[in-house]
Amino acid sequence: MAQNMILTAVGKDKPGIVAGVSKVLYELGYNIEDSSMTLLKGEFAMILVISGKKDISPVQFSKNFDFLRKTLGLSIYLRELSPDELVHKVDEQVKIYAISVYGVDKPGIVYEITQFLADKKVNIVDVNTQIAGSKEESVYVMLLEVEVSSDMGEEHLRKELENKGKELDVNVSIHPVETEEL
Length: 182
What we know:
Order of helices and strands: EHEEHHEEHEEHE
Number of domains: 2
Strand order of the largest sheet: 2-3-1-4
Shape: flat
Mean pLDDT: 90
Number of strands: 8
Helix content: 25-40%
Number of helices: 5
CATH architecture of the largest domain: 2-Layer Sandwich
Oligomer: single chain
Largest sheet: 4 strands, antiparallel
Distance between the termini: 27 Å
Radius of gyration: 20 Å
């Protein structure tokens, strides 16, 4: 039976982080099934869903990353996943949308928008934020991918999001994401 884990690694960005982590996984016989990796203000962060043989304890597994912890300064966290945690069930009655938010940077934008979506039972599946432009003329940008129940009208959600944007003094737009089955 396969062992499934989620691995997170974070450290100061430098060449070799992805190669180092993937080499350890390869040598242990583990496969990277799903991943997200990004650079955030000089820090490189990875989240990996991995699977492999079950004959190694999480503690023993983790020790294989000690060299990378020392040489690359990585913080690495592992958690075993149950088979139920590996499945993201998407209801056929769900539509995928992209939401963009932009405006003057200030505290609370992420909280206010995400709480609004949570209150509407909108599931967030991806979020990216950044400050764009110069220090003198910066713009806060947040991009979200969300799952919306098809019984919630797109126009209704659009109007409510626009109203929330006005309340926060930011621009908010929503667009359907076309998905194709593989």
